[in-house]
Specification:
This protein is an alpha/beta fold and about 325 residues long. It has two domains: about 110 residues, Aspartate Aminotransferase, domain 1 (Alpha-Beta Complex); about 190 residues, Type I PLP-dependent aspartate aminotransferase-like (Major domain) (Aspartate Aminotransferase, domain 2, 3-Layer(aba) Sandwich), CATH 3.40.640.10. It is about 35% helix and about 20% strand. It has a seven-stranded mixed β-sheet with strand order 2-8-7-6-5-3-4. A four-stranded antiparallel β-sheet has the order 9-10-13-12, with helices on one face. A two-stranded parallel ribbon has the order 1-11. Helix 3 packs parallel to helix 8. The protein is globular.
Length: about 325
């Protein structure tokens, strides 16, 4: 497995404790997840019907404010795994640094992978990839600037896994344009990553190919029931988005007290410049708080947002050590 957050097994090997003892801030997953509630027993015992899957698609269109073709998948990662099969291998350009699965998956499938640092450098690619907001540095791009790329590339993939709290950045409403594909993650914003649910939104041809490759039951009955409920809960989404904005300010203030500098971030994570990221990670780990470091950037430390007030207190105590 490539380097990712969420590797609590490594934290336990190095610093001890059970998984439930740790506060895992190494991911950008909401620590105050959507309340699942009761799940119908049929969701566990019966194959999902076409009508149920379509109900999930409609709920996603509602949440993402789009009428474009859409397909549910086992997380945004499932769509990434299938990207190489949408066309014959060619030249892919990825706006970097970013989520490392794109380069790995496409390279393994025979694509010529180039990582670039600016939008203009994506021009001429058979496949161009932009994560918006970007992970891990939180860079954002306007819909207008991204749409301007469409005539200059054969296919443009926009990963909006962290866009739920900043819907003004989303291109979901434009996703039926030829050559555009938008990926959405359910698990991060709703805090239910273990449900393995995500969506690809795009033109009928691309979505049709992804749906065919995903098979007749791409997601579980439980994912359908919980997803339908959550994606139509506008009040929860609005309240959560507002809380995340406030919590980003709170976390930035705590980091500033350590002498760390904000590099960037999104409403679910923050990236800081530190004198020594490994030392900062170890300091937090002594309080059983896990964070994310980056091999290529030895001063970068990424933190997700604590959830409950008790988690915020534990973070403050770990920083004060």
């Amino acid at each position: 497995m490539r380097e990712h957050g969420g590797n609590l097994d490594l934290a336990q090997q190095r610093f001890g404790g059970r998984a439930e003892d740790w506060i895992d801030l190494s991911t950008g997953i909401n620590r105050l997840p959507y309340t699942v509630g009761e799940v119908n027993g049929r969701a566990w015992s019966a194959l999902p019907s076409r009508a149920e899957i379509e109900a999930l698609h409609q709920a996603a269109r509602h949440a993402y404010r789009t009428s474009a073709p859409i397909v549910a998948m086992g997380g945004a990662q499932a769509a990434i795994q299938l990207l190489p099969q949408l066309a014959a291998p060619g030249r892919v350009r990825i706006l970097a640094p970013t989520y490392n699965e794109y380069a790995g998956v496409l390279s393994a499938a025979g694509w010529d992978v180039q990582e670039v640092s600016g939008l203009d450098a994506l021009a001429g690619a058979d496949l161009a990839i932009v994560v918006n907001p970007n992970n891990p540095d939180g860079r954002t791009f306007t819909p207008e600037d991204l749409l301007a790329l469409l005539p200059r590339v054969n296919r443009l993939v926009i990963d909006e896994s962290f866009a739920d709290a900043v819907p003004q950045l989303s291109l979901a409403s434009e996703a039926d344009r030829p050559g555009l594909l938008v990926l959405r993650s359910f698990g991060k914003f709703y805090g239910l990553a273990g449900l393995r649910l995500g969506f690809a939104i795009g033109n009928a041809a691309d979505v049709g190919k992804l749906a065919a490759m995903s098979g007749p039951w791409p997601v579980s009955g439980a994912a359908i029931e919980i997803g339908c409920r959550a994606l139509r809960d506008d009040a929860w989404a609005e309240t959560t988005s507002a809380r995340l904005v406030r919590d980003c300010v709170r976390l930035d203030e705590m980091a500033c007290g350590q002498g760390w500098t904000l590099v960037g971030g999104a409403p679910l994570f923050r990236l800081y410049e530190t004198p020594d990221a490994l030392a900062a990670q170890e300091k937090l780990a002594r309080g059983q708080i896990w964070s994310r470091v980056f091999g290529r950037e030895p001063t970068w430390l990424r933190l997700g947002l604590p959830g409950s007030e008790s988690e915020w207190i534990r973070l403050a105590e770990a920083l004060a050590r």
